[in-house]
Design goal:
18 helices, 7-stranded parallel β-sheet, binds potassium ion, UDP-N-acetylmuramoyl-L-alanine:D-glutamate ligase, 10-stranded mixed β-sheet, 2 domains, Rossmann fold, elongated, 41% helix, binds ligand NAX, alpha/beta, 502 residues
């Protein structure tokens, strides 16, 4: 499913209306009707409902919902933030249809005392105040209403966006509606995957409003959510006549005396994710520790300079920050035709070698967390977090890499700027070692797939799904270890392959 910016959603609406000829008031009817249908399944006959309406088209959707609610005999009051004569266009059309159907409008500003008094009586509030058309901080009258809604006990359902939230995920510090549930129209918006906006949404559902396929293909949308179905459709299917060499001969350069575990985690995860043959290049002093833990792994000397037999190289987990590590990275970057995955200390060393990335012929995957991304770009972590989509896109295009910007809703960006957002995973992943596991999965998937973006997106999904599986069964958010994730990869893959029979 696509993810859209404010401008993309507006362009989709505009194309549908101006070129295809489907009128805005029809889209608004579809939106309101779709929201009503979704809402009704959770309503009780005795619910007292307030639909709170702003002056734009988001308010127009609110009038449609209110009409359907009243038609179905739900006790519904409509409260309008602005004066009626300020409502224009499609919203005015649906306001009139609502009034002509016997509806009544209460003014918030003209009767604020009455509004405050009534608010505590409602069991459900439909928030149709502001949607994608908001600019900056809501005006005072709007902020006051938002504050009152947040203090009310009612279940708040927001239309399209929780009012006050900025659609493109820009940072903000003003108050916005804390929704219990948000019914977003046609496509998820960027802000659903960024902070602080994401915390206001509650549960989310997407309501189709009838934007035709032609409008969507004309727009050329380049961001999407990566779902379990996407993973199932794109996982590689094993050829019955394949052999170990078919599934990737990879070299993992990882682990140092102080961090041998990172190599174990990455290597185990790569093997559990299907890599055919795995060599490990590890510091001599760490070799003893890991040998007995990795019976399936072959060992490569750290002094080796011939990488020609490998179909891919992953470098970084537990590598250490010594000059030796940087020299190794420089050597690996010289292998222009070999796909690379660079993580952790590999990214630390990469800051001195960024200019070589663009000349790499084979795919290069970088897997920074926001701190590493800040180092790579010379920005602060806050700047990175405030513009995760934008910074990822600029960097991936500039350096011609696949960028995996980790965090809640990891964003994967291709060198052409296509973006995939992952929705699996939970805070159990916030622990040392989980990145090493991800590197192993990405590495293995990359070597088994012709499409790097699909391979990486699947790997990120599987990593998150392993954490979800652990928390769903016999773990809490606190006690999941990175090695538990690695051990859970088979359960996740078994489930994904269930219908395909790999
Ligand atoms: N044809 C369309 O364009 C459709 C639009 N739809 C709805 O329309 C919404 C977008 O409508 P609009 O573009 O009219 O915008 P909104 O209804 O989201 O809000 C913008 C309105 O609020 C005012 N406003 C802007 N910034 C403000 C601020 N900081 N404080 C107070 N008021 C502010 C603007 O003057 C404008 O009247 C979507 O979120 C969706 O709910 C749906 O009905 C589907 C069809
Ligand atoms: K809203």
């Amino acid at each position: 499913m696509h993810i859209v910016s404010q401008e993309e959603m507006q362009a989709l609406d505009r194309y549908t209306m101006d070129v295809i000829g489907l009128e805005g008031k029809v889209l608004m009817e579809n939106a309101g009707q779709g929201i009503f249908r979704c809402l009704i399944s959770k309503l009780k006959a005795q619910d007292q409902i307030a639909v709170i309406i702003g002056k734009g088209n988001n308010g127009g959707d609110g009038f449609v919902v209110a009409r359907y609610l009243q038609n179905h005999n739900f006790a519904t009051d409509v409260w309008l933030v602005e004066d009626q004569h300020l409502i224009k266009g499609d919203a005015a059309y649906h306001m009139n249809v609502f009034l002509n159907s016997g509806g009544k409008i209460n003014g918030i500003i003209s009767d604020s005392h009455h509004f405050k008094e009534h608010l505590s009586n409602y069991t459900v509030i439909v928030d149709a105040i502001l949607g994608t058309g908001i600019k900056g901080c809501p005006r005072k009258a709007y902020l006051d209403v938002i504050h009152l809604i947040n203090q009310a006990k009612a279940r708040v359902v927001s239309i399209d966006l929780p009012s006050g939230v900025l659609a493109n995920g820009e940072p903000f510090s003003h108050e916005a509606v804390y929704a219990k549930e948000t019914l977003t129209l046609q496509y998820p918006k960027l802000c659903m995957y960024t902070q602080p906006a994401a915390t206001f949404f509650g549960e989310t559902d997407v309501i189709q409003i009838g934007i035709p396929k032609k409008a969507i293909s004309h727009q050329g949308l380049k961001r999407r959510v990566w779902t379990k179905e996407d993973v199932k459709h794109t996982l590689p299917v094993r050829d019955p006549f394949s052999h170990k060499g078919t599934h990737g001969k990879g070299l993992l350069i990882a682990g140092s005396q102080d961090m041998p575990g990172a190599a174990i985690l990455s290597a185990t995860s790569a093997l559990r994710s299907g890599i055919g043959l795995l060599w490990l290049s590890i510091a001599d002093k760490a070799k003893q520790t890991v040998c007995s833990r990795l019976p399936e792994v072959l060992f490569e000397s750290r002094e080796s300079t011939d990488f020609s037999k490998y179909k891919g190289i992953a470098i970084g987990p537990g590598l250490g920050r010594s000059e030796d590590g940087e020299a190794l990275l420089a050597q690996v970057l010289g292998e222009k035709d070999i796909p690379l995955v660079i993580d952790a200390d590999g990214l630390y060393h990469l800051t001195n070698h960024l200019s070589t990335l663009k000349t790499h012929q084979a795919p290069v995957v970088l897997t920074p967390h926001p701190g590493e991304m800040a180092t790579l770009t010379g920005k602060s972590i806050k700047e990175v977090e405030n513009d995760r989509f934008g910074i990822s896109e600029t960097f991936a295009k500039e350096h011609g890499v696949y960028l995996v910007l980790k965090g809640r809703n990891t964003i994967i960006t291709s060198p052409s700027g296509e973006q995939v957002v992952n929705v699996s995973g939970n805070p159990a992943l916030a622990k040392g070692g989980s990145g090493d596991v991800l590197t192993g999965i990405i590495f293995a998937f990359l070597l088994q797939h012709e499409n790097p973006l699909n391979a990486i997106s699947n790997a990120v999904y599987v990593h998150g799904a392993a954490a979800d599986q652990l928390v769903k069964t016999n773990h809490s958010l606190l006690d999941v270890l990175a090695s538990d994730l690695s051990l859970t990869i088979p359960t996740v893959l078994h489930d994904l392959y269930l219908d395909t029979m790999c």
